[in-house]
Predict the 3D structure of the following.
Amino acid sequence: MNSYLSRFLCLSSLLFLFPSISSLADNKSIAVTLSLSKFNKNPSSDPWQKLNHLASASLIRARHLKNPQKSSLVYKTPLFPHGYGGYSISLSFGTPPQTVSFLMDTGSDLVWFPCTHHYTCSNCSFPNQDPSSISNFIPKLSSSSKIIGCQNPKCGWLHNSDVKSRCSGCEPNSRNCSQMCPNYIIIYGSGSTAGILLSETLDFPEKKKPNFVVGCSIFSAREPSGIAGFGRGPSSLPSQLRLKTFSYCLLSHSLDDTKESSLLVLNGDDKTTGISYTPFVKNPTTGNPAFSVYYYVGLKKITVGGKTVKIPYNYLSLGSEGNGGTIIDSGSTFTFMEKQVFDLVAREFETQVKTYKRALHIEALSGLRPCFGVSAEKNVSLPELVFHFKGGAKMALPLANYYSFVGNTGVVCMTVVTEGLVGTEISVGPSIILGNYQQQNFHVEYDLENQRLGFRQQSCGKSHGR
């Protein structure tokens, strides 16, 4: 890793790749709608190994989220599902525009793309993903590409507020400083990326958003696609576009490796009926600053087969330091629960399910629990899992959203993970992370203007798109 970072630090000094340094701070707003697709980097075709990979990836993602290192236009774009458990969109930047694929992530804020001909991606050889085919943004081909200057207030979005004091050779209040904003290094759950900040034009079919802050990543590890941060930080896509709402409908993971897509809608005039709403919970004011990016929701209780799971209050309640509580995250595949919470939920399933026997060997192979052998049954019947939120909203999950068949083994496993299964204990951060597997075939709306989350079960195929 150090050798790659050293290469990055050398590459970042190649300022001739860019036209100029930007010190502009733009405050205009825009509304957009996009489409989602799956992004495939699953390392195995064996069914239980695939589930084990997704469980491990979800847990690694949870570790990161729990302890991170530091208007007038409606536009619709496809949202594509991928075999590794994520969803991607395409965005166009630059003049003339260059189109790049991004992973949609509500658990982070920066929007970044693979950048320049010198871009290097380490450990990015996944099935269906050839590192040599990664689409790079080339700044020197764009007349609107500018490096963010050290004195630009937007430089502070990714760095500490005292970043200006580190602008070598610049007067404190100088407006003519040519020093670039310091390099960024971002650690994700499964990888990392490093680069410099650019001011670019985000190009939609009927609208352009100039002076959009985007990361020009010159090195990444295990991140073969750019990431579009949809979190609550100032550098996220919703924040920079000043969106009032955004919504999506995630295709089922059973549609992996197809070209079918659903829609991601930005600032849409949502006419969807039957939506249940729950207010966002105010983000913690102390603790890890990264927690301010997350979308916290007030989960009041969990029921299994109509029976309330007796979860201790401190796991459901968000503390001032950011410990406890629940967040919703499109970048996580399987829902994560703190071990004490998970054990209570899993035990309730194990107690209520009398018809099927536990498949302990599949649990060991997949990293999931509980698993049940159902091969003799034509119609599988398992207790219903329901999340109950503040404001009366209830998310009653279809069986396919919380149990998955393991290939042709005749075994189903619960698609919820905890640290005790495939990793070490996690003691800080959110207690529950609602992943995208549990959100599939739900219309999910982030009402930023009214500070609330809305959802409604529906089919997310093209024939049902809005």
